[in-house]
Amino acid sequence: MRKLIALVIAASLMVILSFSMALAEKPGPGPVVVMETSEGTMMIMLDEKKAPKSVENFLRYVDEGFYNGTVFHRVISGFMIQGGGFDENMRRKDTHEAITNEANNGLENLRGTIAMARTPQVDSATSQFFINTVDNSFLNYRDSSDRGFGYAVFGRVIRGMDVADRIEGVKTNARNNMPLKNVVIEKVFRYKDK
């Protein structure tokens, strides 16, 4: 009987140990940021496992308060909302150096994801980002050419997608897709559970 109890205990310990090891290897949810805008609040979970450089870069700007008082300066219905580069007077903000494009990380430009905005040059992203309001598969990584490299997704909206939809619906200047009335990113900060 004692041998049986000892075997059951040993087997239970092995199961608990293997479960604990599996948990240690499996990454938990990434950091979450809160984005308070003039249209409401969004919460965005970042994927630091698949997009470590993009997340580190974004959080650097968040921690510096860089995004506070910036605007969504490019809004295209049925596509995306873009911000993080201009203040309320449409002055371009000074940024840190550009980062390596992580578009080949397996994350797709699906509705609700956040990705790094860039110029036609592959490794040119700095502070600007966009939130996909629809699935935009044509922005995904296809190949390593300038045209095929795509845009790096580094997180997704987990609460407040209705806010992104509301921003998407604002009236814009037909010439440059700029909102006629500022949509302000009032504050962006890391979410901390209390």
UniProtKB/TrEMBL annotation:
**Isomerase keyword on record:** yes
Q: Name one GO molecular function term.
A: peptidyl-prolyl cis-trans isomerase activity
Q: Can the keyword Signal be found in this entry's annotation?
A: yes
Name one process (GO BP) from the record.
protein folding
Q: What class of enzyme is it?
A: isomerase
What the entry lists under InterPro entries is as follows: Cyclophilin-like_dom_sf (IPR029000), Cyclophilin-type_PPIase (IPR024936), Cyclophilin-type_PPIase_CS (IPR020892), Cyclophilin-type_PPIase_dom (IPR002130), E_coli_cyclophilin_A-like (IPR044665)
> What does UniProt give as the signal peptide span?
1-24
Q: Which Gene3D superfamilies match?
A: Cyclophilin-like
Q: Which reaction does it catalyse?
A: [protein]-peptidylproline (omega=180) = [protein]-peptidylproline (omega=0)
Query: Any idea where the PPIase cyclophilin-type domain is?
Result: 32-190
Q: What keywords sit in the KW lines?
A: Isomerase, Rotamase, Signal
**Known EC number:** 5.2.1.8
Listed Pfam families: Pro_isomerase (PF00160)
Instruction: Give the protein's function.
Output: PPIases accelerate the folding of proteins. It catalyzes the cis-trans isomerization of proline imidic peptide bonds in oligopeptides.
In the record, the note on similarity to other proteins reads: Belongs to the cyclophilin-type PPIase family.
What is the name of the protein in this document?
Answer: Peptidyl-prolyl cis-trans isomerase
Annotated source species = Desulfobaculum bizertense DSM 18034
